């Protein structure tokens, strides 16, 4: 009897076979359900509405108008030397005009309350790359970053997969609107220590994803005091800074630093991107702004693995150095997002659903805990599944964001038309009505 | 007396403080000299001529012509939804049209002798990213890749810096035109074993940088047999495949696999990029083509850290699907590079300098070993310095490429005008005359 000897297949690395890419999580069922049955106003009005994707589609017309008027932004001014130079430009410093435009844009978003030096801007292909890059630079494999919960699920992959760095959560809860407290910071730090894990920094997202709210100045000061005392780093991912509903409510860590003459600034690094504020996730435009010279130099060298296309840098340098355009864009974008936010919060309120008071971002943080039979993860998952399959809405459950309290969900509102949002709200209303009726009958 | 207690600066990771970024090498003096005194035909005719940069500037006019005729490639066809859809597209699969275009282009470059499936094309921001990504996937920290010498200096950083993977050289020398032999492969493998290092794969560059020559079919077959017998991977960086001087001389590993019906192909991965063949290094366009499903899936997920701008994908999808354009481009580009190569070879020969017989790439591999006082790295470095400071040419010394035979230099010829190349050749001629004269008088 012949025994078939199978040729051993050629092995891959531990990183390759690990599951830290995160795609085996149950929430991918949500994406699957949407892909298989996507809502379309005309062709598929009973399909799944995608409310799990934090995209900004409310201000494209402003970008399109700009492009219409400024063809030189995309055709290299019709001069051959411009195309040539641009196509050859692979310098990891990034186009000077682009860095200047980004610095300027970041200043405008902060209402001029902080200054940004173009020489401290490092370019990366998206914030995903920026966050990973900083993690490689600030922490060794096995070390940890402290991150307040709930947090963006993507961090589990972005910060840990290839770096081998760990995340230790700073637990926040609804008792104080999920605000970060010094006690929670201390507790997380101690937890890491008790596991013999070296903490290298704190990473905050401000405005917060998934909370959809800005971090108070006093809390930023407390966080800064904490990281200074522990002599660790602070990364502030400000990717939603331009999506704060009003210009004045957002306080950037850069403002706090400026107010104190940049004392202890060498431990602070700001991440930014145009994927959310400008709605250009496809263009892969991220930046690291660091107050630490060695980090800037090292990040710049490391950005060789993830540079922004010079063609795209050119387009954005043009657009973002047009102050008239940017001022109008920032103002209008804020207003439209606020309007959408109000629409969804009112709609949810009418359906008897409360949300966390938000003031920024492309989503709201909805509280469905009253609907849970028991305050458990399993119940939250079951509720999420029925919202997906019965109500046909794909929303993000708090568990996927490591929220310690079951029953909270992130609901995106800027990646669809107002009409579609209306449809979603109606479905939620009907769903809540049905549940009310069932309660009454039982 | 007050003692100033310096506050401890906040620490960075081991990766951050290591010098594997490679920029402290003595060869950066060459770049420095060029930056401080760059040749310009009109303004600075006695400046340093940059011959250390492998850029392709000989075929830009063809690209410019295309862009002139096809404005829809860069303005989203003036349809609103075109811009919007493109700006939102951040799917790590990459634009289907772009992948199809790349697969097509790669087939044309190989004269149709190999087929490429668009679903196996993974996009990365440049070949730099592609090579690093594959290293993360195929090897664990501390493992090794075997690389034939001389090799592209950038590999030291790209493959090792963040991955922690080692490079063990496969020694090749001038006794047989630097061809890779089974003995050299075996020796390198054994060397790794003796150091208790696990070899995970072989990485070849074909056509070779810095040799400027294609690898023979029989050698490719031997390499394939070697990696199969050791059950390890083979990465074939074919970034210069479109820069071979004739259509037939280049044999890709893809053709060898096709000829053997893809047996054992699950260990083979091809890297490609448009930085050399199309002269678009700024656009950051790289791809991994793997015959291994798990590698494709994992690489795709990992490419999230280094995606190609969708704006740029769109432009290239347009351009590379235009077969009239690509057929003409490939043919003309080859002819022009061949002409440049002839020009530099003849010029060098007239100066009494021999080069390795080349048939591809943007450079020639020049033999200055007769000029060395002693066949040592130190003598080579001294010679390199006088080329830089006396002759005012920045060329790449063999030791920066880990060449075991001292005295060889890589000289780029495609990143300048013919006139500038003439000036460089004249300078070399004069330099050689002076040396002959000095010898005679001594």
UniProtKB/TrEMBL annotation, chain A:
Keywords: Pyridoxal phosphate. CDD domains: AAT_like. The keyword Lipid metabolism does not apply. PROSITE patterns: AA_TRANSFER_CLASS_1. Residues 49-428 form the Aminotransferase class I/classII large domain. It comes from the Eukaryota. Belongs to the class-I pyridoxal-phosphate-dependent aminotransferase family. GO terms for molecular function: 1-aminocyclopropane-1-carboxylate synthase activity. InterPro entries: Aminotransferase_I/II_large, Ethylene_sulfur-biosynth, NHTrfase_class1_PyrdxlP-BS, PyrdxlP-dep_Trfase, PyrdxlP-dep_Trfase_major, PyrdxlP-dep_Trfase_small. It holds the Pfam family Aminotran_1_2. The keyword Transport does not apply. This is 1-aminocyclopropane-1-carboxylate synthase 7.
Automatic annotation (TrEMBL), chain B:
It comes from the Eukaryota. Gene3D superfamilies: Aspartate Aminotransferase, domain 1, Type I PLP-dependent aspartate aminotransferase-like (Major domain). Keywords: Pyridoxal phosphate. The keyword Transcription does not apply. CDD domains: AAT_like (cd00609). One of its GO terms (molecular function) is 1-aminocyclopropane-1-carboxylate synthase activity. Transmembrane segments: none annotated. The keyword Transcription regulation does not apply. It holds the Pfam family Aminotran_1_2. Residues 49-428 form the Aminotransferase class I/classII large domain. Belongs to the class-I pyridoxal-phosphate-dependent aminotransferase family. This is 1-aminocyclopropane-1-carboxylate synthase 7.
């Amino acid at each position: 009897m012949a025994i078939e000897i199978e040729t051993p297949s050629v092995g891959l690395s531990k990183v390759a076979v690990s599951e830290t890419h995160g795609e085996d999580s149950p929430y991918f069922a949500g994406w699957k359900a949407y892909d298989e049955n996507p809502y379309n106003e005309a062709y598929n009005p009973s399909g799944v509405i995608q409310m799990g994707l934090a995209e900004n589609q409310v201000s494209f017309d402003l970008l399109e108008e700009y492009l219409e008027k400024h063809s030189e932004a995309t055709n290299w001014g019709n001069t051959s030397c411009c195309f040539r130079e641009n196509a050859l430009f692979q310098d990891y410093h990034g186009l000077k005009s682009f860095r200047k435009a980004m610095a300027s844009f970041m200043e405008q978003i902060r209402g001029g309350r902080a200054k940004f030096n173009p020489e401290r801007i490092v370019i990366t292909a998206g914030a995903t790359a920026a966050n990973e890059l900083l993690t490689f630079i600030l922490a060794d494999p096995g070390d940890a970053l402290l991150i307040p919960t709930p947090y963006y699920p993507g961090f589990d992959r972005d910060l840990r997969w290839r770096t081998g760095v760990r995340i230790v959560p700073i637990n926040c809860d609804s008792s104080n609107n999920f605000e970060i407290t010094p006690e929670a910071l201390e507790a997380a730090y101690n937890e890491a220590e008790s596991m013999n894990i070296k903490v290298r920094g704190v990473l905050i997202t401000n405005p917060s994803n998934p909370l959809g709210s800005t971090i108070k100045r006093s809390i930023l000061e407390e966080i800064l005091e904490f990281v200074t005392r522990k002599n660790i780093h602070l990364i502030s991912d400000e990717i939603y800074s331009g999506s704060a509903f009003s210009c004045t409510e957002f306080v950037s860590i850069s403002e706090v630093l400026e107010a104190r003459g940049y004392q202890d600034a060498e431990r602070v690094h700001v991440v930014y991107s145009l994927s959310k504020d400008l709605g250009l996730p496809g263009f892969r435009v991220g930046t690291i702004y660091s107050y630490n010279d060695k980090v800037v130099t090292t990040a710049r060298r490391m950005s060789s693995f993830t540079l922004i296309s010079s063609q795209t840098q050119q387009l954005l340098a043009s657009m973002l150095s047009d102050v008239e355009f940017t001022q109008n864009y920032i103002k209008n974008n804020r207003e439209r997002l606020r309007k959408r936010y109000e629409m969804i919060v009112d709609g949810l309120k009418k359906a008897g659903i409360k949300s966390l008071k938000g003031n920024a971002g492309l989503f709201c943080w909805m509280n469905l805990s009253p609907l849970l039979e028991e305050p458990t993860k399993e119940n939250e998952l079951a509720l999420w599944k029925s919202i997906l399959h019965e109500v046909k809405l794909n929303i993000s459950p708090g568990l996927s964001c490591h929220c310690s309290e079951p029953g909270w969900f992130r609901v995106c509102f800027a990646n669809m038309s107002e009409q579609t949002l209306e449809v979603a709200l109606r479905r939620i209303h009907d769903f809540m009505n049905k549940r009310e009726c069932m309660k009454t009958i039982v």
